[in-house]
Write a structure and sequence with these properties.
Helix content: over 70%
Strand content: under 5%
Radius of gyration: 12 Å
Number of strands: 0
Order of helices and strands: HH
Shape: elongated
Distance between the termini: 18 Å
Structural class: mainly alpha
């Protein structure tokens, strides 16, 4: 099974939504760090998609 560009775009979008939900309902710094990590990973994924690797 191969991962398509559409799958990668969907994954990046889900990671951004995940980060937004975590930020909205977080109560401590550990949860906020998870939101930051999700957002950072989504940005890396989008950058990878745009560069065509």
């Amino acid at each position: 099974m191969e991962v398509s560009m559409t799958d990668l775009k969907c994954m990046a979008r889900l990671l951004e939504c995940d980060a937004m939900i975590i930020r909205k309902y977080s109560h401590n710094s550990r949860e906020l760090d998870k939101a930051r990590q999700s957002s950072k990973l989504a940005k890396k994924l989008i950058k990878l998609i745009e560069n065509g690797k």
